[in-house]
């Protein structure tokens, strides 16, 4: 079956750097995505890695190692507004629905304190 | 202009009732989805349509019936509601599924009493 594992909670202070890890087990693999969701809000897309390496978008970066079935989201210069849940998600083209099926991890709740 | 809009935002209803949630996207995307988010925030795919054709139908009770009248609209009808159906239902769309990017609506919070 497919599984994604990420920490349930992470706590950090404003201005710090935090890394949220995600390990996955899938039959096939077609990219790792990251989403942010504030309480009461909708998930919003942050980043996507199809190839190994680091992708940087402003204060957020995402990393993928396909050989290790591992990725992480790095948040720098943390701000209070970064307090939210962060989800990793994968596509497994070997599943029915293939590329269209985005499977989410259980989410990591990030609390940023002053 | 809202990209993916769902109505209603909140539903409170009794067990055994039937309810519908509507979704519309103005992004011109070909693929639309329904996801269910439970109280533990776990997001699970339910259905997906590509250009009005059902392409994903997860293990969902047949009390749940999606309908896509055109590629911009995807509705969800739920019959004989049960307590366990209480959740937030998110509609989403994507143009290129391989990009890993979905655009979500604001969600419809369903509470079954």
What keywords describe this structure?
heterodimer; A: 114 residues; mainly beta; 0% helix; 54% strand; globular; B: 113 residues; 7-stranded mixed β-sheet; 4-stranded antiparallel β-sheet; 11 strands
Give a short overview.
Chain A has 114 residues and is mainly β. Chain A has no helices and 11 strands.
Descriptive report:
The complex is a heterodimer of chains A (114) and B (113). Chain A is mostly beta strands and 114 residues long. Helices cover 0% and strands 54% of the residues of chain A. Chain A is built from no helices and eleven strands. In chain A, the strands form two sheets. In chain A, strands 2, 4, 5, 9, 10 and 11 form a six-stranded mixed β-sheet that branches. In chain A, a hairpin with a 6-residue loop joins strand 4 and strand 5. Chain A is globular, with a radius of gyration of 14 Å. Chain B has no helices and eleven strands. In chain B, the strands form two sheets. In chain B, strands 2, 4, 5, 6, 9, 10 and 11 form a seven-stranded mixed β-sheet that branches. Chain B has a four-stranded antiparallel β-sheet with strand order 1-3-8-7, with no helix packed on it. Chain B is mainly beta and 113 residues long.
Shape of chain A: globular
Mean pLDDT of chain B: 93
Strand content of chain B: over 45%
Low-confidence stretches of chain B: none
Topology (elements, then pairings):
The complex is a heterodimer of chains A (114) and B (113).
Chain A (H helix, E strand, L loop, with lengths): L2 E3 L3 E5 L4 E8 L6 E6 L6 E6 L3 E5 L2 E6 L4 E6 L8 E8 L10 E3 L3 E6 L1
Chain B lengths: L3 E4 L2 E4 L5 E7 L5 E7 L5 E8 L2 E5 L6 E7 L2 E6 L8 E8 L8 E2 L3 E5 L1
Parallel strand pairs in B: 2-11
Antiparallel strand pairs in B: 1-3, 3-8, 4-5, 4-9, 5-6, 7-8, 9-10, 9-11
